[in-house]
Write a structure and sequence with these properties.
single chain; 5-stranded mixed beta sheet; about 290 residues; 11-stranded mixed beta sheet; alpha+beta
């Protein structure tokens, strides 16, 4: 199931090959299902089996009664990020060997972990705003993993039981500021966490839609030109390994998200660019780039 959050905070699902958006509460009510519904894509992903059954019944009724077309919205109706404020953004650096090398770094033998501020998140079709003082700012397209369950010391063999959904992510980075901060012994957090530097979406895609996330394509385009083109099979540390590793250090929580790292090809964004992150089976996350407030 592909889940979206409309700009008025209504939960929606995609419908049909064109991926029109169907507001969930309205669809269920029109079909006579007045039971409580999940309020957010995350809540829906955590109870996707029950919701799928209810929507299947509702769609049958709506098609039979001719009500469906009146409820459907355009595929690019205004949306928020499907998780507007993640519990924690746990990001993994240098998780593709060629990306580590392209920035002059050694390939790490254990995950490189950093945090990114949740308020950096913006939704699909929202602008990345670059302030004048930021210097060079880079794109980094990634697969984002959404946890529906947490825990401490999670065995690698059980780690995927914690995952409820996936989405696209752009780990926008103030590269010049990052290097300057690192030279002073500071972490990456500030250079990663500027407002609007975390585009996320366009949907949450539940795990049943992507049974094998270990080999999906991750592509990024700027103004239609492909700049990054990798596969998650190239990751140094797999999703189960990342979950197990993180949970050794601290308890993971429902609503945590893991940005799994970016393939090689990172480069600068400038005002006027249109950047698109596309992950196989999920969709395309589009962001225009504009001048930000200082």
């Amino acid at each position: 199931m592909k889940l979206a959050l409309l700009s008025d905070n209504r939960l929606a699902v995609t419908y049909g090959d064109e991926e029109q958006l169907l507001p969930v509460a309205a669809a269920l009510a029109a079909a006579g299902d007045m039971a409580a519904t999940p309020a957010t894509p995350f809540e829906a992903a955590c109870d996707v089996t029950a919701l799928s059954k209810r929507l299947e019944r509702a769609l049958s009724i709506l098609l039979e009664t001719g009500q469906l077309d009146d409820l459907l919205l355009a595929p690019f109706a205004p949306r928020l990020a499907p998780i507007p404020r993640p519990n924690r953004i746990l990001a993994i650096g240098r998780n593709y060997a060629e990306h580590a090398r392209e920035l002059g770094n050694a390939v790490p033998d254990e995950p490189v972990v950093f945090l990114k501020a949740s308020q950096s998140v913006i939704g699909p079709d929202r602008e990345i705003c670059i302030p004048d003082w930021a210097g060079r700012v880079d794109f980094e397209g990634e697969l984002l993993v959404v946890l529906g369950k947490g825990g401490k010391n999670i065995p690698e063999k059980d780690a995927m039981d914690c995952v409820v959904a996936y989405t696209c992510f752009n780990d926008v980075t103030a590269r010049e500021k990052s290097k300057a901060l690192q030279s002073k012994g500071h972490p990456w957090f500030l250079a990663k966490s500027l407002d609007t530097f975390g585009p996320l979406g366009p949907h949450l895609v539940t795990v049943d839609e992507i049974p094998d996330p270990s080999d999906v394509g991750v592509q990024l385009r700027v103004n239609g030109e492909t700049r990054q083109d990798g596969r998650t099979s190239q990751m140094i540390h797999s999703i189960p390994k990342l979950i197990a590793y993180l949970s050794q250090w601290f308890a993971l929580e429902p609503g945590d998200v893991i940005a799994t790292g970016t393939p090689p090809g990172v480069g600068p964004l400038v005002v006027g660019d249109l950047v698109e992150v596309e992950v196989e089976g999920i969709g395309c996350l589009r962001s225009a780039v504009s001048k930000g407030a200082n």
